[in-house]
Design a protein that fits this description.
By secondary structure, the protein is mainly α. 58% of the residues lie in helices and 0% in strands. It is flat.
Length: 158
């Protein structure tokens, strides 16, 4: 699912938040409620006119799945670029030790990239097919040392 930070333009991110909020509340998504939510969030205070907002939402620009993937793809690339700049800044700082560069700075920076890549993979991978849950009796045996004691016996209840 897209995140407001994935959008290039703040107006688009604000509209995304309006639409998802209305959908989450199970409120009908129509021009009046979208404009009300946009006004409530302050999108009309930024100089955007109501007609501009409605024009953005009115036209069909293709498949939502396609644009959702494009938005996430741009977000992955933008995040990777900025993480590269952060790591480059770490390397250029003479006060940064090798430990700080590898263990602290780079790992933290790469954790952000890992999070966005996970979202990308979840959005673009096919839905998993449901399989019957394995029961304890059908569970695969684990590798390990052989048992040296007898298996515990079941208690007989009275």
């Amino acid at each position: 699912m897209a995140d407001p930070a994935d959008f290039t333009h703040p107006l688009h991110a604000g509209l995304w938040q309006c639409l998802t909020t209305l959908t989450r509340r199970s409120v009908p998504v129509d021009p009046v409620t979208v404009l009300w939510e946009a006004q409530h969030r302050g999108l009309l205070d930024t100089g955007a006119r109501p007609r501009e907002l409605l024009d953005l939402l009115d036209g069909t620009a293709g498949s939502p799945e396609y644009w959702g993937e494009r938005i996430l793809q741009r977000s992955v690339l933008w995040t990777a670029h900025h993480i590269g700049l952060r790591i480059e800044a770490f390397t250029e700082d003479p006060a940064t030790t090798a430990y700080q560069l590898v263990a602290v700075g780079s790992r933290r920076a790469l954790a952000d990239l890992s999070a966005i890549r996970t979202r990308w993979q979840q959005a673009t991978s096919p839905a998993p097919t449901s399989k019957a849950a394995r029961t304890r009796a059908t569970a695969a045996p684990r590798a390990g040392p052989p048992r040296t004691t007898a298996a515990p016996t079941a208690r007989i209840s009275r």
